[in-house]
Amino acid sequence: NYVRILQLNPATHINADIHCSIEAAPVTTAEHDALSYSWGMKSDGDASLSRSTSINEKSARVTRNLFKGLRRIRGRRDPARFWIDAVCI
After folding, report:
1. With bands split at pLDDT 50, 70 and 90, how would you rate the model's confidence at 19?
2. What is the mean pLDDT of residues 18-27?
3. Does position 38 have pLDDT exceeding 80, yes or no?
4. CA-CA distance, 77 to 21, in Å (whole number)?
5. DSSP 7-73
6. What is the average pLDDT score of the chain?
7. Confidence band for 64, pLDDT divided at 50, 70 and 90
8. Using CA atoms, how far apart are residues 19 and 29, in angstroms rounded to an integer?
9. How many CA atoms lie within 13 A of 44 on its CB side?
């Protein structure tokens, strides 16, 4: 009864590299927000338009929409926790 949660590390500049980690947390106590990668036009989320990010200190490809979303929603000081279907399933 666990769910995988992505922790998005903070950055002081919107164009800074994205660094994340994934952890398993109990479903009943895992505090997080949900984020879907599949908004926008189909071509915007196309895997061929993917970007590189760091998850658990390893390079990972995510869609352009998700990459842009992560850059916009991350905090400047505190990490943020998300369940993201494209990453956590």
Report:
1. very high
2. 96
3. no
4. 16
5. EEPP-SSTTSPPEEEEEEEETTT---EEE-S--S-GGGG-GGG-EEEEETTEEEEE-HHHHHHHHHH
6. 87
7. confident
8. 24
9. 10
Overall size of the chain counted in residues: 89
Q: Which secondary structure element, helix H or strand E, spans residue 2, and what is its range?
A: strand 2-8
Q: Where are the domains of the chain?
A: 2-88
Residue 78: both structure tokens together: 């505190």
| Residues β-bridged to residue 59 | 54
State both tokens at 41.
């036009």
Q: How far is CA 63 from the centre of its chain?
A: 10
* Positive or negative: CA dihedral 79, 14, 39, 89: negative
- Contact between 7 and 79 under an 8 Å Cβ cutoff? The reply is yes
